[in-house]
Design goal:
The complex is a heterodimer.
Chain A lengths: L3 E12 L2 E12 L3 E5 L6 H8 L7 E6 L2 E2 L5 H7 L1 E3 L12 H8 L8 H6 L2 H20 L15 H14 L4 E5 L7 H18 L2 E5 L3 H7 L2 E6 L2 E6 L1 H6 L1 H8 L1 H5 L1
Helix pairs in contact in A: 3-5, 3-6, 5-6
Chain B lengths: L1 H18 L4 H5 L3 H23 L2 H20 L13 H16 L15 H23 L8 H14 L8 E4 L10 E4 L1 H23 L4 H21 L26 H8 L11 H24 L2 H11 L1 H6 L4 H27 L9 H14 L4 H30 L9 H15 L8 H9 L9 H4 L2
Parallel strand pairs in B: 1-2
Classes of the chains: A alpha/beta, B mainly alpha.
Chain lengths: 259, 473
């Protein structure tokens, strides 16, 4: 297996008496597409939130690129190279698409308060370059000519695309997508699936996906990890997961075996 | 080019007439003689009205200029010189020009119905100072969305900085750095006002950071409550600071306040060579020089506000206001960014406070009550949070009502209805009503920023999602 980009060791999160994530060991290799699946309430999003610093783990470690990130604030995760989207879209609704992407570039830009007031040549140049790059990213994500639209005026599919564009603007090494195809129609889902493939090929990104749509998971993933009641019950290639009896029992149901 | 102006004016004019039921077609259908006659009557009426109503050529000229500018605004906005869009500066520059000239024509202006005469110059100075403070608070409330109910603490800090470094407060020391108008046998620190203004700003920004570090981890209502606390603590220290912690160290001179504070001025050299006033106190046009200085400071604050709004930091502030969790996930360091907004707001508040203290020649603890925080917040809300022009309007209007407007209105009411109301007594009640009415009918403020208007009508998406321990780190 190639070198691990992201690794968790015995990662655990308790909310009061409830153990949401129970000592999970987990790895995302560099350049891989890994999916995280499991029934509702299995702890997937909680796990995600620990990987991005939104939650602090009760116990265990998160390592990214060999660096211990446990307990660091979210912006530190972004700075090291983890970009994410949200399950329920969280765009900056009243900012334009371009501004949304520019906020995503925050960690990669340097202009400070004094430079902003004086508008030094350096910061002027930086801003112009950032705008160009933001437009490129919007175009890459299929949002050409939408740069002046307010976030909330975009269609649902475009909002999902903008979230990805904004996450890409942080220049991640690992992209975390939380149910990116939720609410998409089959055509949009298919487009999105191929888009994830393009991301890996063109940008060399590793992708971690939480997903309910099995066609997406089985179609695009290198590896699949299954959570149930906070515990990792299986890990392997999509084919192995489809044949795994514990997974079938917990989640997929008998239809997946026959289908 | 003249043809385009004309076309714009004519189009606007027919739009106006069309709205009252006289579209162009109907007018053209009338006999020619009738049209000519009506036009002649209209022009004569306009000329008569200008002379009869005002009779003062200055006013008429200003009114005519205002009308022309208003009608031609859509045209100006598209004006470009070498690809730079200079059009958007036309109206602000006209307003600035009118403001600079105010000391010359202000007293000639006619009475306005109900509100009475135009504001006096001393009122204008106070309006400018409150504009500065409101713009500072706007950075905190309007941009970053942090509700600060203790802004008066920054104002107090600035005022006391002027008190400490430009008066006899510390009688054991003796230091003169460019102060003007010192008398024989002076003691204490006496620094030039031009040094004190930035010093006050920086010191207040530091206080802002110190207050911000423990409080900015909180969200929404909790932050408001804590800032409310700090807004009470600092003025209380000022009130009781004549015997600090029982050490009989007199920091603030207690309820008596620090007075007199040195007057601003540029000194004799600047008077001879640059014709700047050597000493504001002895200047013949005392209020006018203060007004121009305050206006210059306001311009600086406006400039900084605009530059910041369009910068990386400004975007991060707005992102935090929109959705804190998403902003953090996109790599905006919450604590640092919020603290910058607090420090910036505090800086402007401190400068305004120091300037006000030197204008009044004193820093008195009674000026720093909670009401002032609310008063400044009202200015920001009334004008339109986040919008610089709205905030300027709100600040000028409310400060004017406070100083002159309400008593003028009261005189008018009593004169017309034979009542004996003391209207300024109901000041905060009236401000309350204004805010309630604004919130009911135009919650985004009178001149809103497009963004806030959307938020006010449709809400923002920001449910907290964090562990408290990391939220701010």
């Amino acid at each position: 297996m190639p070198e691990a980009l992201l690794q968790t060791r015995q990662l655990r999160k308790e909310f009061g008496g409830l153990v949401a994530v129970d000592d999970v060991d987990f790895t995302v290799p560099a350049g891989a597409i890994v999916s995280l699946i499991g029934p509702n309430g299995a702890g997937k999003t909680t796990f995600f939130n620990m990987l991005t610093g939104v939650y602090r783990p009760t116990a265990g470690r998160v390592e990214f690129n060999g660096e211990d990130m446990t307990g660091k604030p979210p912006h530190a995760f972004t700075h090291r190279g983890i970009g994410r989207t949200f399950q329920n879209i969280r765009l900056f609704q009243n900012m334009t698409a371009l501004e949304n992407v520019l906020v995503g570039m925050h960690v990669r830009l340097k202009g400070n308060l004094f430079e902003a007031i004086l508008r030094t040549p350096r910061v002027k140049h930086e801003e112009a370059a950032a705008r160009d790059r933001a437009r490129e990213l919007l175009e890459f994500s299929g949002l050409r000519r939408k740069d002046r639209e307010l976030g909330k005026n975009l269609s649902y599919g475009d909002q999902r695309r903008l979230e990805v564009a904004r996450a890409l603007a942080t220049q991640p090494k690992l992209l975390l997508l939380d149910e990116p195809t939720a609410g998409m129609n089959p055509q949009e889902t298919a487009d999105f699936t191929s888009f994830v493939g393009v991301l890996r090929e063109q940008q060399g990104l590793a992708v971690l996906l939480i997903e309910h749509d099995m066609r997406v998971v089985m179609g695009v993933s290198d590896r699949v990890t299954v959570l149930d009641y906070g515990q990792k019950i299986a890990e392997g290639t999509p084919q192995e997961i489809q044949r795994n009896e514990r997974v079938i029992e917990a989640y997929l149901g008998t239809a997946a075996v026959s289908g | 080019m003249r043809r385009r102006i004309r076309a714009a004016v004519v189009a606007r004019w027919w739009q106006l007439l069309g709205a009252v039921g006289l579209p162009r077609e109907r007018w053209s259908a009338q006999p020619r003689l009738l049209r000519r006659f009506v036009l002649a009557v209209v022009w004569a009426a306009i000329a008569l009205a200008l002379v009869a109503l005002w009779g003062v050529w200055k006013t008429s000229a200003i009114a005519a200029a205002a009308i022309v500018i208003f009608i031609a605004v859509p045209w100006y906005e598209r004006l470009t010189i070498r690809g730079r869009r200079v059009g958007k500066f036309v109206v602000p520059l006209c307003v600035l020009g009118l403001a600079i000239g105010y000391p010359y024509y202000g007293t000639d202006m006619p009475q306005v119905p109900i509100f009475g005469p135009f504001p006096q110059l001393s009122t204008m100075v106070v309006m400018m100072i409150f504009t500065m403070m409101a713009l500072g608070l706007n950075v905190v409330v309007g941009y970053a969305g942090l509700l600060d109910l203790g802004y008066v603490a920054f104002y107090a800090m600035g005022a006391y900085m002027a008190g400490w470094f430009a008066s006899n407060q510390f009688a054991k020391q003796k230091l003169d750095l460019g102060a003007v108008g010192l008398y024989q046998g002076w003691t204490g620190f006496h620094l030039s006002i031009w040094l004190i203004l930035p010093m006050a700003g920086i010191a207040t920004a530091i206080v802002g950071v110190l207050i911000g570090l423990p409080t900015l981890r909180l969200r929404g209502d909790y932050l408001a409550i804590v800032t409310l606390g700090f807004g009470e603590i600092l003025p209380q220290i000022a009130r009781n600071g004549d015997n600090l912690f029982g050490t009989s160290f007199n920091l603030t001179n207690g309820t008596g306040g620090i007075t007199p504070i040195d007057q601003p001025g540029f000194g004799n050299w600047a008077k001879e060579h640059l014709h700047l006033p050597a000493q504001y106190a002895t200047a013949a046009n005392f209020d006018a020089v203060f007004f121009w200085t305050a206006l210059a400071l306001v311009c600086i604050v406006v400039f900084c506000s605009m530059r910041l709004r369009d910068s990386r930091l400004g975007r991060a502030w707005i992102a935090i206001r929109e959705d804190e969790t998403a902003a953090a996930a996109m790599g905006v360091p919450l604590m640092r960014t919020k603290t910058w907004s607090y420090a910036t707001g505090a800086f402007f508040g401190g400068v305004a406070g120091a300037f006000y203290a030197s204008y009044k020649s004193g820093a008195f603890p009674d000026d720093f009550f909670f009401q002032i925080s609310v008063f400044i917040l009202c200015m920001v809300i009334l004008g339109g949070m986040g919008n610089i022009w709205g905030v300027i309007f709100g600040a000028c209007f409310l400060a004017y009502l406070d100083r002159e407007g309400l008593s003028n209105v009261g005189t008018w009411i009593n004169g017309h209805f034979g009542t004996h109301l003391d209207v300024p007594l109901y000041e905060f009640g009236i401000f309350g009503i204004i805010i309630v009415v604004v919130m009911l009918f135009r919650p985004e403020g009178l001149i809103p920023s497009a963004r806030i208007a959307h938020e006010m009508h449709e809400g923002v998406h920001d449910e907290p999602l964090y562990d408290h321990e990391i939220a701010g780190a």
